[in-house]
Structure prediction request, 209 residues.
Amino acid sequence: MVKLFQNDITYQYPWSTTTIGFWSKYPNPHSTHVLSIDTLSRSVDEETGILRTERIIKARQGVPMLGVSEDAWVREIVWVDPIAKITSTVSINMSLSEYVQCIELISYARDPTSPPGTSSTLFTQRAHISSPPSGLPPYAPSTGPGHPLSKSMSRILRKVGAKLESSSVERFGMNAGTGKTGFEGVLQGVQERLDAEGQVFEREVGDGA
Prediction:
């Protein structure tokens, strides 16, 4: 069984500001669990202008109910489409996947309903969570050919998996609020820097004139 977490937010900043903020999202005081981000590759499609970036994120992560806390690794791919003005990401956990698998899809896109003279960005988040990741194994662990799972063991594994999925969804919900607060702070800082740079540019142009 797969559980779905959904989260939709409207940020009162233009897509360009939000995308700049995405690249400088970490570290921030509300996301201390993110320890490092390493870029593996980056390329631009010459025909479409789409920027593709692959990263590995290291975070302090725990497995719900199991009491396990360790450094976890997440693979993330990011696409930035400057024409359509959409920034999208897909990420999957590389660590602890024997307990829970999470595929997270995120996008930042222009809000087409913004009133004239304003600009905002729609944030959509979808997380597909499953445990066990590939369904129940057909055989019990064994050094030999293995023995088929009993009905009682199958029921136990399904119950544990369902609780892990529910706990993971609940954690996503709790993290959503602090994540929004942290990103709002990042966006405010980005907008202030852009405004300051714009004022400097205007003064320089004025002096040159």
Remarks:
- The beta strands are 2-11, 34-44, 51-63, 68-81, 86-93, 101-110, 121-130, 139-140, 147-148.
